[in-house]
Design a protein that fits this description.
The chain is an alpha/beta fold and 602 residues long. Helix content is 50%, strand content 8%. The chain is elongated, with a radius of gyration of 42 Å. The N and C termini lie far apart (113 Å).
Length: 602
């Protein structure tokens, strides 16, 4: 048995296990050795020869652990913001209705991997007396709980799918699941970032995932659940972890600061919670940086001013100045504020996004009831003031202009110049009334009898008046033209509309003159066409002058009359009085079907 003893690590001379002279698992984890947290492997410090020295504290030599690792949730009670998931798991455990595969999804830092480890502890906990069963509140002191927390439990296998993407890696899992757990109740496979597995790897896992042995549980975590095959999703019980509310993050950060003995201003914690965007890990990383950034001469107090400076928010005041200049129509102040932001390293595209963010917050504050969402009291007060001053129409128009400017800046060869031009366009359009307000103003001006400016009169009014006073041709002439067109003589019908001024029209007889600009005598063509459609021999004579306007001239005269009626309307006169440089345009269609997009301007 001596060889056997040596095989298991006992000292041949003393008979005592070497394990007693080695660092504990807690010391290895604290030194960065824990496989759970992925620390770099370092050789543990050799044990001191004297027993009493071995028990001496070694905290001074241990590396600092960041807050995100130090305060990782160890119980479901410490997992904030996921009450619905915890309640579901508690009911499933209490009723013994445990799924064989769980999928945790959500944005970074909301507790997906931590939840997987907590489920592992909950399923394998045996209680302090070793007689307990699965529970939503694992004791944390039994051997399975301690081993899982330290990342050394042999039956809880954690795999990073980002570095194990192939079929061979999955094949190892498939071959290992047939063997029972060594010491735990369940053999658990935690696969992080599972969406990184290849398609073939997913296919190789499907059968085992659908019908695993009773002693195996699969726990998947991913930030991109849409990349998982539907066949995998249908085999898992899915939990969507939500973004953590800002209020819960502030409370968590305040508790951690209290435990760390760090004083922090409430406003500073609010800024950090806003910057975390619902991620506890991101917020703790920022808090760690803020504590390190705090001045030692102030006792290491985390101040809001220093946090704003650290996060690049010190110029939010300058950004508010820029937004004020934009709304006030101050071009010089606007360009100066843009130059100040650019000199401080703010990219033009980021500047446009910040202004769009302001517009969005103002709009939300205007329609909401919970007040403005802002990281500082000054910004909150400014947003509430803007929401009272601006109308919804102005805000939506401002958003559209900024959105168009953002696209222009993104695609422009010189983003700064594009940003200046886009914001100047926004500035000049900021005080323009919306269509509803404009219509109301014009109606009020019309009611007050505001006359239209004299410059709106039509310059060709003399000819139009003469044409409008001319007598229309006999109704039969228009009917004859339509019959010629329906007979398929389109060219003749077009010339009859455009060139013929009817002097005398009777059954079988037509006397006509040509419209100005036409000299060609087409009497023979007219005679043949009219005879064809009526069955009567026609006599057609051309005279030098006189006659009623052509059908085209009559149509133009009618349009001119309609335009004069439009200009005479009080609301149009008020519009010309308010906007002297305005032009009246109308859509027109030429006779014979030739379209003109836009006709002459008034």
């Amino acid at each position: 048995m001596g060889d056997s003893d040596n095989m298991f690590g006992q000292d041949a001379s003393s008979g005592e296990p070497e394990e007693e002279n080695k660092p504990t698992a807690e010391e290895l984890e604290a030194a960065g050795q824990s496989a759970l947290f992925g620390g770099e492997a370092q050789a543990p410090a050799p044990a001191a020869p004297e027993p009493h020295v071995e028990a001496a504290p070694t905290a001074a030599a241990q590396p600092y652990r960041v807050l995100a690792r130090k305060y990782r949730p160890q119980t479901f009670a410490e997992l904030i913001g996921q009450d619905a998931m915890v309640r579901t798991l508690a009911n499933a455990i209490a009723r013994d209705r445990l799924a064989h595969a769980f999928l945790m999804t959500g944005v970074r830092g909301v507790g997906k991997t931590s939840t997987a480890r907590l489920i592992s502890k909950a399923l394998n906990c045996v209680g302090p007396d070793g007689q307990g069963g699965p529970t939503i509140s694992p004791c944390g002191v039994c051997e399975p709980c301690v081993a899982i927390s330290e990342g050394r439990h042999i039956d809880v296998i954690e795999m990073d799918a980002a570095s194990h993407t192939g079929v061979d890696d999955v094949r190892e899992i498939v071959e290992a699941v047939r063997y029972a757990a060594v010491s735990a109740r369940y053999k658990i496979y935690i696969i992080d970032e599972v969406h990184m597995l290849s398609r073939n790897a997913f296919n190789a896992l499907l059968k085992t995932l659908e019908e695993p042995p009773a002693h195996v549980k699969f726990l998947f975590a991913t930030t991109e659940v849409d990349k998982l095959p539907v066949t995998v999703l249908s085999r898992c019980q899915r939990f969507d972890l939500r973004r953590i509310p800002k209020e819960l993050l502030e409370k968590q950060f305040a508790d951690i600061c209290e435990q760390e003995g760090v004083e922090a201003e409430p406003e500073a914690l609010a800024i950090i919670a806003s910057a975390a965007e619902g991620s506890s890990r991101d917020g703790l990383s920022i808090l760690d940086q803020a504590i390190a950034h705090a001045d030692l001469d102030t006792g290491g107090k985390v101040a809001a001013e220093r946090v704003r400076d650290m996060l690049g928010l010190a110029d939010r005041g300058a950004l508010r100045v820029l937004f004020d200049a934009l709304l006030a129509g101050d071009p010089q102040g606007l360009l100066k504020a843009i130059d100040n932001q650019y000199s401080l390293g703010v990219e033009p595209l980021a500047l446009m996004r910040s202004l769009m963010e302001f517009t969005h917050k103002i709009t939300v504050a205007q329609v909401g009831s919970s007040g403005a969402d802002a990281p500082t009291a000054e910004e909150r007060e400014a947003i509430e003031s803007w929401s009272e001053r601006l109308s919804p129409g102005q805000l939506h128009r401002l958003w559209q202009l900024l959105l168009k400017g953002h696209d222009e800046v993104r695609n422009a060869p010189d983003p700064l110049v594009a940003a200046q031009m886009a914001l100047l366009r926004v500035l000049h359009a900021a005080d323009m009334p919306d269509p509803g307000t404009l219509a109301k103003t014009l109606e009020e001006m019309a009611a007050n009898g505001v006359a239209a400016p004299s410059g709106t009169a039509n310059g060709s009014g003399g000819e139009t008046s003469q044409a409008s006073r001319a007598q229309a041709p006999a109704p039969d002439w228009r009917g004859l033209v339509e019959r010629v067109r329906n007979d398929g003589q389109l060219n003749l019908a077009s010339r009859m509309e455009l060139q013929v001024r009817v002097v005398e029209l009777a059954e079988g007889q037509l006397t006509y003159a040509l419209a100005p600009g036409f000299r060609e005598d087409f009497s023979a063509e007219l005679r043949d066409g009219l005879s064809k459609i009526t069955g009567v021999r026609w006599q057609v004579d051309l005279v030098g002058e006189g006659g009623a306007p052509t059908l085209v001239e009559l149509q133009e005269a009618q349009k001119a009359q309609q335009q004069e009626r439009v200009k005479a309307a009080p609301i149009v006169q008020a519009a010309f009085a308010a906007f002297p440089q305005a032009e009246l345009v109308e859509e027109d269609s030429a006779p014979g079907g030739a379209d003109r997009n836009w006709s002459r301007n008034a």
